[in-house]
Amino acid sequence: MLVRVLDTNNAHIPEPRTFPAKGDRPARTVYEQKVYADMGGIFPVMFKISHDDHNSAYPVGEYELAPSSFKINQYDQLELDRYNIRLTPLSKKAG
After folding, report:
1. What's the rounded Cα separation, in Å, for the pair 67 and 71?
2. In Å, how far are 32, 90, 92 from 66, measured between CA atoms?
3. DSSP code for 94
4. Burial of 2 by CB count in 10 Å (0-12 exposed, 13-18 middle, 19+ buried)?
5. Residue 5, CB half-sphere, CA atoms under 13 Å: how many?
6. Contact call for residues 46 and 70 (beta carbons, < 8 A)
7. What DSSP letter does each residue of 14-69 carry, written as one string?
8. Closest residue by Cα to residue 5 from 52, 51, 67, 70
9. With bands split at pLDDT 50, 70 and 90, how would you rate the model's confidence at 94?
10. pTM (global) more than 0.70
């Protein structure tokens, strides 16, 4: 699946999101970056990838979902691991 990080309207810049402290867990801040997936329709679909640090955001470019982004659930079905989405840069094929 083709995934793009675009610089349109600064979409590539991660935005902080803070989760308040709860119970014995301290407050936590993650950085959400908007990315766009080509799912076969006319327009790409925006979704967000979370980073622990704003410096680990993906640069503008084209990517694909890394195999580590998937897991097998309790029903032995393949699913996207929403807490471990990783992108792999798409290499340009020589032609």
Report:
1. 9
2. 18, 10, 16
3. P
4. middle
5. 20
6. no
7. -EEEEEPPBTTBPPEEEEEEEEEE--SSSS-EEEEEEESSGGGPPPSEEEEE-GGG
8. 51
9. very low
10. yes
